[in-house]
Amino acid sequence: MKELELKYGCNPNQKPSRIYMENGELPIKVLSGKPGYINFLDAFNGWQLVSELKKATGLPAATSFKHVSPAGAAVGLPLSEVERKIYWVDDMDVEFTPLANAYIRARGADRMSSFGDFISLSDVCDKETALVIKREVSDGVIAPGYTEEALELLKSKKSGNYNVIEIDPNYVPAPIERKEVFGITFEQGRNELVIDEHFFDNMVTENKELPESAKIDLAIAMITLKYTQSNSVCYVKGGQAIGIGAGQQSRIHCTRLAGSKADNWWLRQSPQVLNLPFKADIKRADRDNAIDLYMGEDYMDVLAEGAWENIFTEKPAVFTAEEKRAWLDKNTDVALGSDAFFPFGDNIERAHRSGVKYVAQPGGSIRDDHVIDTCNKYGMAMAFTGIRLFHH
């Protein structure tokens, strides 16, 4: 198959629409559904991300994409009991595989952003991963293959209309890529940068200690940023992205946005949130929304009289700013990556408040000395990679 006609482009008024190959066959098969233009953008970007994560870490990887940027990315490390609970899988009597763990973690870090996601998996989708996908609100999945049981489960999703794409894992794209904007063709060499164990060798801070776990987390951050709309910043802990700030014009706004998402991920693990008395019939998406409001400044939207009764069996206490700060101060050993240099130390100050200990960024700002001094003030270890990772 050399081309595939799509229903429409980014919007319904943008017709005709298709994907096609100038030379050779398309490296994909649509096994179910009818993926659209944005679905394929998410699928192909996500597939590149998880393929690189697998190569860099040796672990199965998954990502949850929305609007051509990842909402989450993770490798297949085991889930703790708390993680099983905050990711809403503690009710599943399933022995999760590493690939299932990877998707649960990728989806769970920012469940609000992942709602209606497109999934990319580095490995053949197994039954356990399909069981998790089947219960989530999602547009589709791309993987190098599917077991018979997994494919049967996925084909039954959305009354048979769920998008399931199989990609040839041996496909190698042309070294030059092109796109057209306003009738003008842009051309560039593909970003074939390999992020490996030596990517973080240039330690520029007084603290030069970078354990293997931190190298893995920083690699996850930088590979995630490679496929995130710039400007972008990524916080990672324990093998998963916990906060991604994408597409902001200001670096500090990226750092704040990603930091607030990382904070929310950690706050979800607090006793105040874990013990919220939800009514039994509340759906997972509604619980996610209620938790997001409860942890934020608009908490009265769910705690006001006449509102809480629809969500909880009893009225929860307000999660005070002091209580939240005390819990956030317990978060440590977080890794932070940036797709371009930090121009000022204010980014490090903000990162410190979210438990960041390890930092990787290209360097090259005229204020590098100030950024390094700020890291030194907090005992952070920072590597200069010397390489920018803009993605547009």
Q: Helical stretch count?
A: 14
**Number of spatially distinct domains:** 3
Mean pLDDT: 96
The percent range for strand residues is: 15-25%
User: Which structural category do the helix and sheet elements fall into?
Assistant: alpha/beta
Biggest sheet details: 6 strands, mixed
Order of strands, widest sheet: 3-8-7-6-4-5
Q: Identify low-pLDDT runs.
A: none
CATH fold name of the largest domain, please?
Cytidine Deaminase, domain 2
Instruction: Work out the radius of gyration.
Output: 21 Å
Which series of helices and strands comes N to C? EEEHEEHHHEHEHEEEHEEHHHHHEHEHE
Key features of this structure:
about 400 residues, alpha/beta, Cytidine Deaminase, domain 2, 6-stranded mixed β-sheet, 5-stranded mixed β-sheet, 15 strands
Describe this entry's structure for a reader:
The chain is of the alpha/beta class and 392 residues long. The protein has 3 domains: 3-172, Cytidine Deaminase, domain 2 (3-Layer(aba) Sandwich), CATH 3.40.140; 177-267 and 328-384, AICAR transformylase, duplication domain (Cytidine Deaminase, domain 2), CATH 3.40.140; 271-318, no CATH class. The chain is built from 14 helices and 15 strands. The chain has helices at 37-57, 81-86, 98-108, 111-114, 127-135, 148-155, 212-226, 251-267, 271-274, 284-295, 300-303, 321-328, 346-352, 368-377, and strands spanning 3-5, 18-20, 28-32, 61-66, 69-75, 117-121, 138-143, 163-167, 176-181, 184-189, 232-237, 240-246, 334-338, 356-361, 381-384. The strands form 4 sheets. Strands 3-8-7-6-4-5 form a 6-stranded mixed sheet. Strand 4 and strand 5 form a beta hairpin. Helix 8 packs parallel to helix 13 (346-352). It is globular, with a radius of gyration of 21 Å. The model has no long low-confidence stretch (mean pLDDT 96).
